[in-house]
Amino acid sequence: MNAGDAGSPGVLASRGVDNGHIADRLEAFASLLELAEANPFMARAYRRAAETIRDASFPVADVVRSGRARELRGVGPGIEARLRELVETGSIAELTELERELAPDLVGLGRYLGLSAKRSLDIARALDIRTADELREAAAEGRLRSVPGIGPKREAQLLEALAREREPRPRRGLLLNRAWELVGAIAAALDGAPAGDVRRWRDSCELLSVVCAAAEAGAALERFAELPQIVSLIEQDDHRAIGVTVDGVPLEVVVAEPGRFGTALVRATGSPAYVAALEPLPEAPDEAAVYEALGLPWCPPELREQPFRGEPPALLEPGHIRGDLHSHTTWSDGRASVEEMGRAARERGYDYLAICDHTPAVGAVRGLGPDDVRRQGEEIAAANEVLAPFRVLRGIECDILPDGRLDLPDDVLAELDWVQASVHGGQRMARKEMTKRVESALRNPHVRCLSHPKGRYINRRPENALDLVRIFEVALEERIALEVNGLPDRLDLSGEHVREALRAGVRIVCSTDAHSERGLGNMPLSVATARRGWATAADVVNTRPLRSILDRAE
Ligand SMILES: [Zn+2]
Ligand SMILES: [Zn+2]
To answer: Minimal CB count within 10 Å: which of 91, 329, 364, 478?
Structure first.
């Protein structure tokens, strides 16, 4: 390096703009867009571009400088302009502005009060405030009622909620993917271990917890209070603190002396009922030593829901999964092509991927009729030429019509390698009708799997009234597998229902229902949910080799 280089702002600024840094900034941008409840597609586009850049094997800054950023997958003109700005100036002005304006702690407090991000920001603008503390102050001074749309009654509600802010209370839980992201980041920042509901992979996480080992708790607790994800501290003593996160959910940090770390981790991981049944816990530096001292085999966290002192089964592992049997492409509502999805699945080490796009009755998005299915078959054959010996399977997610018929004729279904049947519309049907509807679909000889059987959306839509006991009988007779759908807001079947299905002798499929290459990454959610239902590899259809799937010998 010579003095001339050092004097040039362009060179100075771009030094250190490595792929990881660029991806981090784009991801931060995406998060803030989400926080601002901007167009979700825009946030997603930034995330996708960040993913591409993070995985790139060449310095993306060079590509941007040479004006070829648009050649990167997922980079359009808008993202290109921001990349250029980042590489040339070292920052993105709009991102800095959003970070300043959005005040995550204020939005977090707003969420805690039941306000949308947009509403919180409107209030902040009206009161000319920026932080959570300023909002509390303004409320205490009686200034909330000066905000358009807040009458005396609404003000009283908000003041009451603020008064209760420091009492922990049960809240609607976080979806598992978000909870992992949050708890994982906080655990990493504190050098601690994730515990609580996420470590048991509960489908909706209410008790978030991180356990750290340190002789002196003070430093770790101070660092915790300073984390950007923590809005305010509700409680603190000499070895433990509870803070409210930006999502409005309490998170507990426990600092244990190294010799007692294992004990603290067991205590912070299991459900209250599970832990109570093990007490008094011996003191030990790691979990293995705690269980050994108890004279018990180590227990996988997913099984620490109910009291259990026995020998756990050899549970399904992510590495057992040979392929993903539910994914979408741009033929319906997915975001990648057949070949892109196949390639991404191959990169994950799978042997096969079933493309299961929708059929016309799904309504809200494009569905494939018979001609489309056949044309897609040609595209899949072409992809297989390129990707062999990896195999893209011709599949379908076929709607179950209200009368129980399937949304495609039998001769079309007969051509396919893997047929999933799904209820999408008419979920509110009464139990008897719903069960009959699904049962008649499962009697179709081409159907192999029932997708998201209970049709729930976690925290948004209750389960449909399907009689699972009856469905298990039919599934057993017809050799139909039930899906454990890995979308974070579905996780359907749930762990409990998996356990009932397996007890009835029915097999399951662990699928992601991926709508993008990234979506294939949700497999651990499906696998963990199956583990919560005590599934072993033998219970899961897609632990079998390709041949068994094709021959229906699974
Ligand atoms: Zn579906
Ligand atoms: Zn689907």
So the answer is: 364
Residue 470 vs residues 232, 364, 441, 502: alpha-carbon distances, Å:
49, 30, 13, 14
Which residues are CB-neighbours of 542 under 8 A, at least 6 positions away?
321, 322, 323, 324, 325, 509, 510, 511, 549
Which uninterrupted H or E stretch holds 205?
A: strand 204-205
- Encoded tokens for 255: 């600092």
Determine the average pLDDT of the residues in 123-129. Answer: 88
CA of 447 relative to ligand 1 center, distance in Å:
15
- 255's enclosing H/E stretch is strand 250-256
Rounded CA gap, 390 and 99, in Å? 44
How remote is the CA of residue 138 from the centroid of ligand 2, in Å?
A: 47
Cα 101 → chain centroid: 27
Burial classification of residue 272, based on how many CB atoms lie within 10 Å of its CB (0-12 exposed, 13-18 middle, 19 or more buried) = exposed
- For ligand 1, the distance from its centroid to the CA atom of residue 46, given in whole angstroms, is 26
Q: In whole angstroms, give the CA distance from residue 544 to residue 537.
A: 9
Given pLDDT bands bounded at 50, 70 and 90, which one contains residue 462? confident
Give the 3-state secondary structure percentages of the chain, helix then strand then coil, rounded to 5. 50, 15, 35
Helices 77-89 and 19-35, packing angle to 10 deg: 120
How far is it, in rounded angstroms, from Cα 191 to Cα 187? 6
Residues lining ion ligand 1 (Cβ < 5 A) are 422
Q: For 275-319, how does the pLDDT look when each residue is reduced to its tens digit (9 = 90+)?
A: 999 999 999 999 999 999 999 999 999 999 999 999 999 999 999
Residues with CB under 5 A from ligand 2 (ion): 397, 513
410-452 pLDDT, tens digit per residue, is: 999 999 999 999 999 888 899 999 999 999 999 999 999 999 9
Closest ligand (CA of 364): 1
pLDDT digits (tens, 9 = 90+) for 22-58: 988 888 888 777 776 666 678 888 888 988 898 888 8
Instruction: Please tell me the distance from the alpha carbon of residue 491 to that of residue 484, in angstroms, as a whole number.
Output: 6
**In 3-state terms, what secondary structure has residue 546?**
helix
Q: Record the pTM.
A: 0.74
Give 279-329 as a 3 state SS string.
CCCCCCCCHHHHHHHHCCCCCCHHHCCCCCCCCCCCCCCHHHCCEEEEECC
pLDDT score, position 18: 87
How far are the Cα atoms of 17, 42, 57, 60, 198 from residue 53, in angstroms, in the given order? 12, 17, 9, 7, 29
Rounded to 10°, the helix 93-102/117-127 angle is 80
